[in-house]
Design goal:
By secondary structure, the chain is of the alpha/beta class. It is built from 13 helices and 15 strands. The chain folds into two domains: 121 residues, Aspartate Aminotransferase, domain 1 (Alpha-Beta Complex); 226 residues, Aspartate Aminotransferase, domain 2, CATH 3.40.640.10. α7 links the parallel β8 and β9. α11 packs parallel to α13. It is globular, with a radius of gyration of 21 Å. The protein starts with 25 loop residues before the first strand and ends with a helix.
C-alpha cells in the first residue's frame, strides 16, 4: 500500500499545541508531525469510538503482546510481559521515576545538549542537574567518557537519563558506547533511565540498539521508556510503557507511577498502541523514507543557499540540529528574529544546554511543500538577521 505524506493538512483551530500560533506563522518547533497517523490506527480508534461507551479501561494481553513482538521483530530485544508497565507518557514516567528513585538534592546526570524537559523533570522535583557535555568537533558529537566517569563517581549522582537515540542531535549511540555507559554506571552504582521514544524513527538502513539488550549488567541496572507516540504521531492519546527487567526496580517504578496516578489507560490508549505495533510497519517504513528525503532536501538547501548554517549529521529523529555558530552564539536572539521577521518558529538551542546556544532545532516532519516554505523563510530571516533589513 502507498501512503500519502505529500498532502498538507491544516491543524489550525484544532487545539494543537504546535499550531497555536498567529496567522501566517509556520511552526517547526515542538516534536509532533504534520502527517495524519496510519490509516490502520485511525480505523482502530474509530471502531472503538463507535462503541460509544468510554468507561475505565484495563490493559488487555494484546497490549503486552504488541510491545513484545514489535521490539523482538524490529529491534531484536526479547522481553517479558512482566517487565512492562503502562504509563500515560514518557515525560510523566521520567518525572515519576526521578521522584521515586532519587532524594532531594541528589544529582541526575544528563548528556547535553539534550531534550529540555529532562531539566524540568529534575529541577522541578528538587534534584540537581549533573551535566556531561557531549564533545563537538564542528561536525559531529561524541561522549566525553572521562568527564562522564568523573560525574558518575560523585556519590550524589544516583540516576542517569540516557537519550537513545539522542534528541536533539539525532545520534544513534553505538553498541560500544552504550556498553561503556552501562559498565561505568554499574561501577558507580548509578541507575540508567533510558528514554528510547525516538527509536523507531531511524533513517532507512539504520537501527538503534536497545540499552537493555546489551548485557545482563545493562538489563538489570536500567529502566527504559518506550512508546508509539513519536513514530506514529499519537502523543495526544497519552500512551507509553516503562520496561523494567529488574524486579526490585520494577516494584519501585510501579509504586511511583501508581502513586502519581499516571498508570491507567484512557479508552483509546491501548487501542492506538496495539494497532500501531501490529499493523503499522508499512506506514512507518514509508514515513522513514519520506523523512530521510526531507533531511536530504534541507542539507542540500543549506549547502547551496545558506552555507553559514550546517545540519549536524543525523541518523534518527525528524529533528535537525542546525549549527549557526558562524552567525551567532545567541540562539534565543536568532530564533526570535526569525519568528518576528518571517513567522518561522524554530526551537532555540540554548534551552537544551551544552553548546546549544549556537544551534537551532528544526522539525522537518511535514509535507515537502511545507518544508520548502520553511526553508524559504529561513533564508529570508537569515538575510534580515545579517543585514538588519
Amino acid at each position: 500500500m502507498t501512503y500519502d505524506f505529500d498532502t498538507p493538512h491544516s491543524r489550525r483551530n484544532t487545539g494543537s499545541l504546535k499550531w497555536e500560533v498567529s496567522e501566517g506563522e509556520l511552526p517547526m518547533w515542538v516534536a509532533d508531525m504534520d502527517f495524519p497517523t496510519a490509516p490502520e490506527i485511525r480505523k482502530a480508534i474509530l471502531d472503538r469510538a463507535a462503541q460509544g461507551i468510554f468507561g475505565y479501561s484495563v490493559l488487555p494481553d494484546s497490549w503486552y503482546d504488541a510491545y513484545l513482538h514489535w521490539w523482538k521483530r524490529r529491534h531484536g530485544l526479547e522481553g517479558k510481559k512482566e517487565w512492562l508497565i503502562f504509563c500515560t507518557g514518557v515525560v510523566p514516567a521520567i518525572s515519576s521515576i526521578v521522584r521515586k528513585l532519587t532524594t532531594p538534592a541528589e544529582k541526575v546526570l544528563v548528556q547535553t545538549p539534550v531534550y529540555n524537559i529532562f531539566f524540568h523533570s529534575i529541577l522541578n522535583n528538587g534534584r540537581q542537574v549533573a551535566e556531561n557535555p557531549l564533545k563537538y568537533n564542528g561536525k559531529d558529537y561524541a561522549i566525553d567518557f572521562d568527564d562522564l566517569e568523573e560525574k558518575l563517581a560523585d556519590p550524589q549522582t544516583t540516576l542517569m537519563i540516557l537519550c537513545n537515540p539522542h534528541n536533539p542531535v539525532g545520534k544513534i549511540w553505538n553498541r560500544e558506547s552504550l556498553e561503556q555507559i552501562g559498565a561505568l554506571c554499574q561501577k558507580h552504582h548509578v541507575i540508567v533511565l533510558s528514554d528510547e521514544i525516538h527509536c523507531d524513527l531511524t533513517d532507512p538502513g539504520c537501527s538503534y540498539v536497545p540499552f537493555a539488550s546489551l548485557s545482563d549488567v545493562c538489563r538489570e541496572n536500567s529502566i527504559t521508556c518506550i512508546a508509539p507516540t513519536k513514530a506514529f504521531n499519537l502523543a495526544g492519546l497519552q500512551t507509553a510503557a516503562v520496561m523494567v527487567p529488574n524486579p526490585v526496580l520494577r516494584h519501585k517504578v510501579w509504586r511511583g507511577l501508581n502513586t502519581d496516578e499516571v498508570a491507567e489507560p484512557n479508552a483509546f490508549a491501548c487501542v492506538g498502541a496495539v494497532a500501531a505495533f501490529t499493523q503499522g510497519d508499512a506506514w512507518l517504513d514509508g514515513l522513514r523514507k519520506y523523512l530521510y528525503q526531507n533531511k536530504r532536501r534541507v542539507i542540500e538547501f543549506l549547502r547551496q543557499e545558506l552555507p553559514c548554517i550546517r545540519a549536524v549529521p543525523s541518523q534518527a529523529t525528524y529533528l535537525l540540529w542546525l549549527d549557526c555558530s558562524a552567525l551567532t552564539e545567541k540562539s534565543e536572539e536568532l530564533a526570535r528574529s526569525l519568528r518576528e521577521s518571517t513567522g518561522l518558529y524554530l526551537s532555540d538551542g540554548a534551552q537544551y544546554g551544552g553548546n546549544g546556544n549556537c544551534f537551532l532545532r528544526m522539525n522537518i516532519a511535514c509535507p515537502k511543500v511545507v518544508l520548502a516554505d520553511g526553508l524559504s523563510r529561513l533564508r529570508q530571516g537569515i538575510s534580515v538577521y545579517q543585514t538588519g533589513k
